[in-house]
Amino acid sequence: MNIRDFEYLVALAEHNHFRKAAEACFVSQPTLSGQIRKLEDELGTSLLERSSRRVLFTDAGLQLVEQAKKILSEVKLFRDMASDQSGAMTGPMHIGFIPTVGPYILPRIVPKLKEQFPELELYLHEAQTQQLIHQLEEGKLDCLVLASVAETAPFREIEVYSEPLSVAVPCEHEWATLDEVNMLELNGRTVLALGDGHCLRDQALGFCFAAGAKDDERFKATSLETLRNMVAAGGGITLLPKLALPKEKIKDGVCYLRAVNPEPTRSIVVAYRPGSPFRSRFEQLAETIKQQLGV
Fold first, then answer.
1. What is the pTM of this model?
2. Per the UniProt record, which residue ranges are transmembrane (predicted)?
3. Which of 13, 104, 151, 227 meets the CB 3.0–4.6 Å disulfide criterion with 221?
4. Domains held by the chain: number
């Protein structure tokens, strides 16, 4: 057996389809299928229950898939440590961003990174927190730029900045003439929020619930822009992070107010695996973000 066999096995587990797994590994379907059979023969155990409609792993197969993932992660770490580029901003860097950070940071930092580090190959991935964490654990991503949450505790974190959240209300709202609003004023009110899976949902609602507000269970947004448009249409009020705010206090039917007592915030960090040898690269990434955001 060899490392490539492990890659085939993991790809098949991820895609649950021989053709798709073969495409992901850049080989033909017969090649991948044949190697899996050879691996079964070598191990002396069945990894799959084969049918014409789906791929179903045996219990032994599932256990070996998990072990293969660990082996591939260690192999990647070995190669990274052997590379003489561990401290240089050159070569590939796979970075994950959550949807409430990526659209507002990337246009500001990517041009600067390309200008400062022309030999750096950026691969940018946007997904929700849980998916990014899973990809970081498996070695598919080098680091993440996201809000620090309990699930990121096993990783190393480089703090980038503390981002305040502002209250967004329709222009016709009674608070629209104010510059700031006490969070206690949300007591008894209903707020709009993102859908499940967005870490900002839990963070924003945590502050709102503490103030006595409740979640509008009839609506769950898929993005900050959807939330903004709902507020503009008079559909309710919400909390939005500073990066997503325009320079103007009032724009396109939405009025933005500073929230106080307490000021709701989230901590944006660069997270990476504890064993990664690329800490200096991630520190440079964090510093570039700080410089471009002026924090």
1. 0.77
2. none
3. 227
4. 3
